[in-house]
Each structure stands twice: as structure tokens, then as C-alpha cells.
Design a protein that fits this description.
Number of strands of chain A: 7
Strand order of the largest sheet of chain A: 1-2-3-4-5
Largest sheet of chain B: 5 strands, mixed
CATH architecture of chain A: 3-Layer(aba) Sandwich
Order of helices and strands of chain A: EHHEEEHEHEHEH
Family (chain B): Belongs to the acetyltransferase family.
Number of domains of chain B: 1
Helix content of chain A: 25-40%
Shape of chain B: globular
Keywords (chain B): Acyltransferase, Transferase
Strand content of chain A: 25-35%
Radius of gyration of chain A: 18 Å
Oligomer: heterodimer
Radius of gyration of chain B: 17 Å
Shape of chain A: globular
Order of helices and strands of chain B: EHHEEEHEHEHEH
Protein name (chain B): N-acetyltransferase domain-containing protein
Structural class of chain B: alpha+beta
CATH topology of chain B: Aminopeptidase
Largest interface: A-B, 73 and 72 residues
Largest sheet of chain A: 5 strands, mixed
Pfam family, one (chain B): Acetyltransf_1
Organism (chain B): Amphilophus citrinellus (Midas cichlid)
Helix content of chain B: 25-40%
CATH architecture of chain B: 3-Layer(aba) Sandwich
Distance between the termini of chain B: 59 Å
Distance between the termini of chain A: 70 Å
CATH superfamily of chain B: Gcn5-related N-acetyltransferase (GNAT)
Strand order of the largest sheet of chain B: 1-2-3-4-5
Chain lengths: 172, 161
């Protein structure tokens, strides 16, 4: 029986975090979009003001002398709405294929929901691709509302190039 | 029309509150001062101001705002999420909205951010058209991303052992 444990990510985990980020992106056929580096993950997650937080799921090897293996993670941060207050935003959530069905995903979600409540967040938010049926069902089964479907929310984005254009003042 | 854009300070709280209440049709914005203007703010605001000669009949010179906070993309790294962008109706069509967004973009780039995200309601066609004309793209339409939320009882239930 595979034993696993959840813990807060540490600086030494950044290469595993990036590995899992890329695995998840690959699953969504977006691996080429990942430009984030281990250096950025280190500075942005473990500096004075972290931009994100991570919990890690690791399994013990077959022998007690084996290094534990990082097999899942969740990346999250806190967002804020003046009307509803703090929210926990779940940016990425992934368990390696070979470790599914052990309850790791549910345990991560339970841990995050508990954390959301302890930190007085009024909700937990995230995005899911509509064609990712297993994930959509996973979340709907647990009571998540689809704000895009129910309230017409659309996520809009300015990428780096369009940000630069927008930041440049117009010619007088 | 002359106007200026700058980062908001504690003195702007009352005006920000006033505009939030109008823009979102709500009666109050909880803890704005504490959450936005203490040592570790949860969010940041930029304000649009007009000179005295253009003040509204109620005497207001602060006529627009953008409220944002830092977020993170697992693909790109540092990002900004813009929660609110509002210009008082009588000051629209004069480039104030564009200027507020330009300021947020400048601050985003200065902080090393790679993208700016926000949500728009699909029934709000004027807003959608405005944003698309500024060079952004509709992630929900192109990637099929849906915004989801777990709150109230669903969140409590999820937190149970």
C-alpha cells in the first residue's frame, strides 16, 4: 500500500514543482506555453513576499532508505474582492497518473478548503477547461459552481506583448 | 479634458469607496482601508483625477479607479489580476479608462509581471468591445476556460475530514 503525505513546499522542491507544472500543461496540450523557470519559482515563492504557495504530496519509496518521491502538488494564492473579501485561488492542482485513485487529490482539496476556512476566505476559485470532462465532473461533484456558465463570466487576458503596447503612452 | 492618473493613497479611500458602491451597486465595501492601505495590502488602486474646474456638481475630482492585485501563473510566473475598472459616466469617452489601464500595465511590467488577467460578464458588450480593442484576448472563448468557485456549504463540506 502506497503511503503518502502532504506538506508545505520548500525551496528544494522547485525542480519537482516545475516538472509537475509541465506534466499538467502537457496533459492540457500546452507544454510549449510554460516559460516559468526554477529560478523564478524560487524567488517568487520563497522570498519576502511570496506570489504563490504550494503544497506537495510525496510517497515513500519501497525501502526506508529510498528518497521520497514528489507525486502531486497544488499551487495557490490569495485574492481579494472588496465586496466578498478574501478568496483562495487554486492555480494548479495535479497528481501524477500512476498515483491516481489513492485519494491524494481529494486530500489536497480537503487541506486547501480547510486552509481557506481557517484564513477566513469566503470561497475557493479556479478555472477548468470545459473539455476536461473528468476535472469538470470532479469539481461539480464537490459543489463547485461554474460562474462562466451560470453568470456569463469570461476570463480575458493581456499577454506580455499587449501589456507593453498598453503601457506605452500614445504619440501626442 | 485634462486628467491625471496616480497610485491611490489612504486619503483616497472615501472616494474609492464611493465609486465601488456605485460601480457594483452595493451599499458597502468592507474593510477597504485596512485591506488596501495597511502595511501588507491585499490589493492596490490607481485613481483618475480631474482639476478643480472639472469637478462634478457634488464636488468630486476623483472620477475613476482601477483595483488590482498580484497573482501567479504556473506557465508564465508573476501576473496581475485587475478586479475593477470604473470611470464615472459623465467622464467616459475621454480616454480615462485607457489611461487607467495603461498605468496598471506600467506598474505590472515594473513589477516583473508577464500578463494581466480580468473577467468580464458576457452580457456587458460595451466593456468586452473596449477591452478587445485594447489588445487582449478572450481566454474563455479561445481556450474554453470556465471560472469556477466553491463557497459556503460546499466549501465547508470539502473541508470535512
Amino acid at each position: 500500500k502506497m503511503e503518502y503525505k502532504l506538506r508545505k513546499a520548500e525551496p528544494r522542491d522547485v525542480s519537482d514543482i516545475l516538472r509537475l507544472v509541465k506534466e499538467l500543461a502537457k496533459y492540457e496540450e500546452m507544454e510549449h506555453q510554460v516559460t516559468l523557470t526554477e529560478q523564478e519559482l524560487l524567488e517568487d515563492g520563497f522570498g519576502d513576499t511570496p506570489f504563490y504557495h504550494c503544497i506537495i504530496a510525496e510517497i515513500q519509496g519501497a525501502n526506508s532508505s529510498d528518497e521520497p518521491k514528489v507525486v502531486g502538488f497544488a499551487m495557490y494564492y490569495f485574492t481579494y474582492d472588496p465586496w466578498v473579501g478574501k478568496q483562495l485561488y487554486l492555480e494548479d492542482f495535479y497528481v501524477m497518473d500512476e498515483c491516481r485513485g489513492l485519494g491524494i487529490g481529494s486530500e489536497i482539496l480537503r487541506h486547501l478548503s480547510n486552509l481557506a476556512m481557517k484564513t477566513r476566505c469566503t470561497g475557493m476559485m479556479f478555472v477548468v477547461a470545459e473539455n476536461n470532462e473528468p476535472s469538470v465532473q470532479f469539481y461539480k461533484r464537490r459543489g463547485a459552481e461554474d460562474l462562466s456558465q451560470e453568470e456569463g463570466w469570461r476570463l480575458f487576458r493581456f499577454d506580455k506583448d499587449s501589456l507593453v503596447k498598453m503601457a506605452t503612452p500614445p504619440e501626442e | 479634458m485634462d486628467f491625471s492618473i496616480r497610485a491611490a493613497s489612504l486619503d483616497d479611500c472615501k472616494d474609492i469607496m464611493r465609486m465601488i458602491m456605485v460601480s457594483r451597486h452595493v451599499r458597502a465595501a468592507r474593510n477597504l482601508e485596512q485591506d488596501g492601505f495597511s502595511k501588507n495590502p491585499f490589493f492596490h488602486v490607481v485613481i483618475a483625477e480631474v482639476p478643480e474646474q472639472h469637478r462634478t456638481k457634488e464636488g468630486h475630482t476623483k472620477i475613476g479607479y482601477a483595483l488590482y492585485f498580484y497573482s501567479y501563473s504556473s506557465w508564465k510566473g508573476r501576473s496581475i489580476y485587475m478586479l475593477d475598472l470604473y470611470v464615472m459616466p459623465e467622464f467616459r469617452g475621454k480616454g480615462v479608462g485607457k489611461a487607467l489601464m495603461s498605468k496598471v500595465a506600467q506598474l505590472a511590467l515594473a513589477a516583473g509581471c508577464h500578463q494581466l488577467n480580468f473577467t468580464v460578464a458576457d452580457w456587458n458588450k460595451p466593456s468586452m468591445d473596449f477591452y478587445l480593442s485594447q489588445g487582449c484576448f478572450d481566454v474563455t472563448a479561445s481556450l474554453g476556460y470556465h471560472c469556477m468557485r466553491c463557497e459556503g456549504e460546499a466549501l465547508e463540506h470539502l473541508a470535512q475530514p
